[in-house]
Write a structure and sequence with these properties.
Helix content: 55-70%
Number of strands: 5
Strand order of the largest sheet: 2-1-3-5-4
Largest sheet: 5 strands, mixed
Number of domains: 2
Radius of gyration: 25 Å
Distance between the termini: 77 Å
Length: about 500
């Protein structure tokens, strides 16, 4: 390794160490915790208990199928050292943030053949407040992004070295990504389409595609067979049409605006311009799609032409493959999926990669303009991440906040006799703070299918009967919600004894 290459690796490592430290510094109370976070943590604890991958936070404790096992398995692996998965998430995500910085540095370098561009991409990721905040939450996306970036690199090395082993490794990494998030299917499609477009002749296309598919299939097939045997469902999804709501689209635009403009004062002013960010998003996607079609179709129809740069090509193709994947999931498979930061984060990473790609192209023509744009982006990003770190250090996020930590309702539930059944609208929080599996409430609409759920009346009757028997309680948190939700809570609690009413939380029991 030459001295310049060695210096670049040291720089990437240094940036990775800084990133790891910043995550630890920003989360003194631990990572942010939400519903899915508790599912992963409970799943890891179930594995450590020797019970397999199960829904430990629910009283039913059924085999888990809704969430793939990748992140929980990693938490369980770390847990073998004696570190509880709840604490292990902070250790893992801080290392993953550093690892993602390092991988992006390598990707930027290999993509542009410029070590400076690699450093620039690593720095851009390090100071991006949206992606930084993502790594401060106990979710599976940081691991998914790590596996995605690793697979990008191994696919690149396959095209560079023409060795089948790199394609096999890519298939295995994509399999692990699928076991981390079902969105890994978009990654699978990205590489498969790339092989079809960029390889020639057809005998090579088919043989290499077969090798790649064969490397991926054992992971997806093994998980599906396990789910069929234990839960009679491959992924706990059913095909039901539920169009994407306007509120969901607005959430996506809001998160894109945060990514593009981290300086909050300017962002708020820009948001006042009607449809500005919709136009910006559309223009960026149109430019990327035009570039992608030109590069890909030219190589497909004219095989002798030069193969497009691999890392930029698959990064762009992945944006559209991933978008198609999540839109189809929202529309047909899971109405509860929203355009949240965690869902959009893989797109943001690819946009950073392509941003550096085009800045590097501009550098060869207009060095000063390219440098100015990069410094302008970094300046805004530094403002955003400074504010983010300050906010994060004020207290835990989600279920890790003092609102939950100090909730008197949790103390009431902890003091209930062992074996008392708990019906609640916050099963994840109840499990986290009482270490008891809870029962979810009967509801009118299935959040996954978006369709009416039958048996609401009988569910309410059974709940009330169980509570009035003295063997169960009804715990409702944050009861001052919208009128429709309050009406449901009133139906659930009708005829029960209000034993606790503090801090906007209520607990109903049998009459004393």
């Amino acid at each position: 390794m030459t001295k310049p290459h060695f210096a670049s690796f040291l720089t990437f490592i240094l940036l990775a160490v800084i990133g790891t430290f910043l995550i630890l510094y920003a989360t003194p109370q631990g990572l942010g915790l939400f519903d899915d976070s508790i599912a992963y943590i409970a799943g890891a604890r179930s594995i450590l208990n020797g019970d397999g991958y199960r829904e430990l936070w629910l009283a039913s404790n059924q085999p888990m199928t809704h969430f793939p096992p990748g992140f929980s398995s990693l938490l369980a692996l770390v847990g073998l050292s004696g570190l509880d998965p709840l604490r292990g998430t902070r250790f893992i995500n801080s290392l993953l943030f550093g690892g993602n910085i390092f991988l992006l540095g390598i990707i930027g370098w290999k993509m542009t053949k410029s070590q400076i561009a690699g450093v620039a991409l690593a720095i851009l990721f390090l100071v991006n407040h949206s992606l930084f905040r993502l790594h401060t939450t106990a979710m599976s996306e940081p691991l998914y992004i790590f596996l995605t970036l690793a697979s990008f690199l191994t696919f690149y090395y396959y095209f560079q070295l023409k060795q089948k082993r790199w394609l096999i490794i890519t298939g295995c990494l994509v399999g692990l990504a699928y076991l981390t998030r079902y969105a890994g299917l978009a990654l699978f499609a990205t590489f498969l389409v790339s092989l079809i477009l960029l390889k020639h002749p057809w005998s090579w296309k088919l043989s290499r595609a077969t090798i790649f598919i064969g490397s991926f299939i054992p992971f997806a097939l093994g998980w599906s067979i396990r789910n069929r045997l234990l839960a009679d469902s491959a992924t706990n999804r059913t095909i039901v049409y539920h169009p994407i709501t306007a509120e969901n689209i607005e959430m996506g635009i809001y998160n894109f605006s945060l990514f593009f403009m981290p300086f909050e004062t300017w962002r708020r002013e820009l948001m006042r311009i009607p449809n500005l960010f919709i136009v910006i998003i559309s223009i960026i996607l149109l430019i990327l799609l035009t570039w992608l079609l030109y590069k890909g179709l030219k190589k497909f129809f004219q095989p002798p032409t030069e193969t497009p740069e691999i890392l930029s090509f698959i990064s762009t193709l992945y944006i559209f493959g991933y978008l198609a994947s999540i839109i189809s999931s929202m529309t047909w498979f899971d109405a509860s999926t929203k355009f949240q930061l965690r869902i959009l984060s893989p797109i943001f990473v690819s946009l950073l990669i392509m941003g550096i790609y085009f800045l590097n192209q501009l550098w060869h023509k207009q060095k000063y303009l390219s440098a100015f744009l990069f410094l302008f982006i970094i300046t805004l990003s530094l403002s955003g991440i400074t504010t983010t770190i300050t906010d994060l250090r004020k207290g835990g996020q989600g279920y890790a906040s003092f609102q939950w930590f100090d909730a008197e309702a949790m103390e009431f539930l902890r003091n209930l006799p062992e074996g008392t059944r708990i019906y609640t609208n916050e099963a994840a929080a109840v499990y986290l703070y009482t270490n008891r599996g809870a029962y979810v409430l009967p509801d009118l609409v299935d959040p996954v299918t978006g369709q009416e759920r039958g048996g609401f009346e009988s569910g309410v009757a059974n709940l009330q009967k169980d509570v009035l028997s003295g063997e169960a309680v009804l715990a409702l948190f944050d009861v001052s919600k919208d009128a429709q939700t309050q009406a449901v809570y009133q139906i659930l609690s009708e005829g029960l004894y209000l034993a606790f009413d503090k801090q906007n939380d209520t607990i109903y029991t049998a009459y004393p």
